[in-house]
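Task 17 of the worksheet. Students: predict the tertiary structure of the chain below and write it out as structure tokens. Keep your answer in the requested format; marks are given for formatting as well as content.
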Amino acid sequence: MPLTRGRMVALAGLAAVAAAGVVALLINIFEREQEARNPFYRVVELTDDTEDPAVWGKNFPLQYDGYRRTVDQVRTRFGGSEAVPRTPTAVDPRSVVAQSRLEEDPRLKTMWAGYAFAKDFREERGHAYMLEDQVYTERQQVTKVCRGAQGGHSSRRLHRLSRRPDLAAPRHPPRLPRGDEGLQGLTGHP
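Model answer:
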């Protein structure tokens, strides 16, 4: 097949389009590499010692806006927790906490008997409250009792803790009836 003038022009045009595509790809790659070197516009200088979220928010406004939305304590169809007022104490200075799941379902105390969750288990609050909720939970007090003066965990201390009346599990769990009548309630079949 001889190359005619029309085929040569088409071939040259195709080569030009391919070359333009390769050049555009290389330019795009170079621009992305430059963006990666400085991923944001610095409004303020941040160091490892900068703890205030508002200062970080000046450089990262979208992320800070999302963080600020975690302060809301409103139940939604997706979950969330409602704010429950409480009187601050010397051990726990919080004036607002999330609702206690142990009060909603007292069976959880029995299920978690011997564990710190039997003492305090609350609805999740937003990320803005995370550190505060971890420091002031009553579970911290239970683990301090468990660790004792020497520090560290000991199986004897855990055993003694699980024998305390306010945290202990029932000695004999309820038994299911034997035979077919015992399975009816479990399977949902008559």
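Marker's comment: The first helix runs from residue 5 to 37. Residues 80 and 101 are 13 Å apart (CA to CA).
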